[in-house]
Amino acid sequence: MTDASMDSPNTTRHATSLMATDARTKKRANAEKRFRAYGIVAIATGLFFLIVLFASILSQGIPAFQRTVVSVEFTLSPAQRDEAEGTLFKTKAYSDLFIGALNDQLTESGVTVDFDQDAIERLLGKVGGTIRTFYADNPDKLGEAVQFDLAASSRVDGYFKGRVSRDTLQDSRFLQLSDLDLVDALKEAGIIKQAFNWPFITGADSGVDNPGGAGIGASVVGSFFMMLVVLALSLPIGVAASIYLEEFAPQNRFTDLIEVNISNLAAVPSIVFGILGLAVFIQFMHLPQSAPLVGGLVLTLMTLPTIIISTRASLKAVPPSIRDAALGVGASKMQAVFHHVLPLAAPGILTGTIIGLAQALGETAPLLLIGMVGFVARGYPDGFVAGFTEPNSAMPAQIYTWAARADVGFYEKAWGGIIILLMFLLTMNIIAIILRRRFERRW
Amino acid sequence: MPILWLFLIVLAIAAVGYVSGRARALQSAGGDSRNLHSLPTYYGANVALKAVVPAFGLLIIWLLAQPLYVSSQVSEMIPETSVKEGSSLSLVMAEVRRTADGLNNAVAAGVLSEDQARNARADVTDVTQRLKDAGQVVTSEITQPVLRAAQSYRAMNSTGYAIMTGAVILVALIGAAISWFQTHSDYRARNVVEQGIRFLLLAAASIAILTTIGIVLSLVFNTWEFFKLYPASDFFFGTTWAPSFSGRGGASDLGIIPLLWGTFYISLVALLVAVPIGLFAAIYLSEYASSRVRSVAKPLLEVLAGIPTIVYGLFALLTVGPLLLDVFGDNGLGWMKAGTAVMTAGIVMGIMLIPFVSSLSDDIINAVPQAMRDGSYGLGATQSETIRQVVLPAALPGIVGAILLAASRAIGETMIVVLGAGAAARLSLNPFEAMTTVTAKIVSQLTGDADFASPEALVAFALGMTLFILTLGLNVFALYIVRKYREQYE
């Protein structure tokens, strides 16, 4: 505060002009500026972190949506097929045919480069097998020209995206320096190119050795089934509990106990809910491990406090005059609540529920404990009931699995998965905001 | 899915009960609903509720009780001698369950006929072979007692479920019938239904209590099991954390001190990042910022709170870690060995906590009445002097409460430390070294392949218990401080 004191008259004070700022005023003014600057710096730092976070997500995640494909036009006559089926190493015969076709295309575009079968295998994996199964499944395509889009191996993909460079590459059984010459030649001929990575969005997880083939689709489905469980359980239970606490609960110890429990559960670390799920649902009730049903149950218990708190707020926002009017025309208490208060509070409840669901969708820690991580989600569940009970992964658990794998190629997938996860969360939050804007009533 | 069918059957009974109850009420009133005590729908709802609620109650209790009963019965059948050295009854029971599941799946797949699965004199090797052919995972070799136990486990379960189905449907029918006969124009259906709904609402509210009880029981029981296998004093005062996965029993050192130290250290770094930034941001937003700046900056900061923790974990592992390593690593100052360290996890966790601190402090600062600021300005204080000497002291209990809540968040945070802090448990003061926390070790002890009965897995429950008590204590303490020291300005 100021040191201006009334009772100690200071004669020297009057010597200076009011217009000239003295040292002390200057000091105080500077302190004021500094304090203000701290605040601005703090906010700027916070926003800077936000920008860095999103920049690193976008810059490292977007490459996951691109993949490198080798597209080769390939024609197989029935005679060639019979010949290949007649040899001892059938897939070898097919891949020889493929290499022939590739060579033709290369010479057509005027590029010459030497390569052998091993190089093709390092670039594209087992081509022969792929082609053989294709023709076994589609015999009617024999004799026609077929465009094959074959995914390049993850290291070649990395070469295109700058993850692998000629300087740092060491010859290994995965990729050799000479292969990159072939890749460059193919690129010049327009045979190898970048394409949008649909398999990443629709596909399922691959094994630990194949980052290129990993997709997030199956775990999106797993998350979807989990959210169905959460919605089906936490919305009715949460709304019922809030109605009881807000409208009917008498003032007694039991009500206090419930209130204390809800506020404590809201602060319990999520990993503890995972322990609860493991001990109760899996150890004690023997529900299937890694199943979206169990994940949904755990997340329901975790989201309930959030939903209860927001539902109570929106019930509280409905003015008492509505209740009084309903009671006044002869409605019972229950009728007043269910026919009048609840519909008016519905937009608020819905908004709270969506935000609670968004929170549950991004939660990872409890899922680790109920076994949604060790499991490799290789395919979609078959059928609606199986979607709940069959082992599956969930989006955040899948991202964690990728992040924990040794191959650097999976990091890109993890960032890509995060972009998809954040898009879901963004959509849900935007829906919540729109609902609030549109239906919120101010009394 | 027989339980799904049971569910639907009970609902169907309720639907039929609803229609017939309503019709009966109207009939007894001579078709004129004005002669009824309640609206006709209440009579229908009365019948439906009385069919559904007791039936589902029975279903839930049965589903919980039957596994307990069957397990206790079956485990009595297993002779002492078949429990191998170094194994335990619960392990054998797990094997029994696996075998029973295998038998079920084999029957479903048609490899094994129902008779063969039930046959008590079946040849063990033959059944094992058939199970393996059916692609069922069967542990090494099934022994005779295990197969017998599995067979009776299956039998008891299937009879149990059969009885349950009958009993649940019966209860639903009886409930519907009784209430149907009660239905009469003078019957106070609305009051009964409303009473019932009130009871259901209360039950929904009680789930919060049940959850807490579930958490506490699951932690306490397993912690108790752990302390039977491992001395509590070594757990609480041991300074080394070195679980072994191969050996059992005394081979592991499971001292919690290094984990608590790691937790504490990382949380401290996080708070050192979050509290100054969050607090100054809150002060600026509530005291200086124009409403336009506020309406942009506040939601943007809060975006940080809405981002899932797995994103922060990846951010720590792949962005912040390598960045710090460039500066402090061997190419820079040489303090850091790897990207995962206390600093990495701490800084990222701090970023996560910024909006937590700023929003809570913002609310608290806004709650300080304007009259106090005006009084201070009137005495000639500048804005910053007012904030430092009037507003902040008034808001201090609330701010301390907010910081404590943020600390409890930091202690319970899992994904950031699992990915960003490293896995080595050590007692060190160097913030650039990898350390690990209680939460990270809960994850690593429970996601491995160790069986639930070993101390290496059970220790996770003791860690969870510690974590639960720690965070609960911090929360209660925060609330206490806020309540006790809050200035009342009304």
Topology:
The complex is a heterodimer of chains A (443) and B (490).
Chain A: H1 23-61, E1 66-75, H2 78-86, H3 90-108, H4 117-124, H5 127-137, E2 145-151, H6 154-161, H7 177-188, E3 192-196, H8 198-202, H9 217-248, H10 253-265, H11 270-284, H12 292-317, H13 320-328, H14 333-362, H15 365-369, H16 384-389, H17 395-404, H18 409-439
Antiparallel strand pairs in A: 1-2, 1-3
Helix pairs in contact in A: 1-18, 2-3, 3-5, 4-7, 9-12, 9-14, 11-12, 12-14, 13-14, 14-18, 17-18
Chain B: H1 2-28, H2 40-77, H3 89-109, H4 114-118, H5 124-133, H6 144-182, H7 189-229, H8 232-237, E1 241-242, E2 253-254, H9 257-288, H10 291-306, H11 309-328, H12 342-367, H13 370-378, H14 383-412, H15 415-420, H16 438-447, H17 455-485
Antiparallel strand pairs in B: 1-2
Task: Report what the structure shows.
The complex is a heterodimer of chains A (443) and B (490). The radius of gyration of chain A is 32 Å and the shape is extended. With 443 residues, chain A is mainly α. In chain A, helix 9 runs parallel beside helix 12 (292-317), helix 9 runs antiparallel to helix 14 and helix 17 (395-404) runs antiparallel to helix 18 (409-439). Chain A contains 18 helices and 3 strands. In chain A, 65% of the residues lie in helices and 5% in strands. Chain B contains 17 helices and 2 strands. Chain B has a two-stranded antiparallel sheet with strand order 1-2.
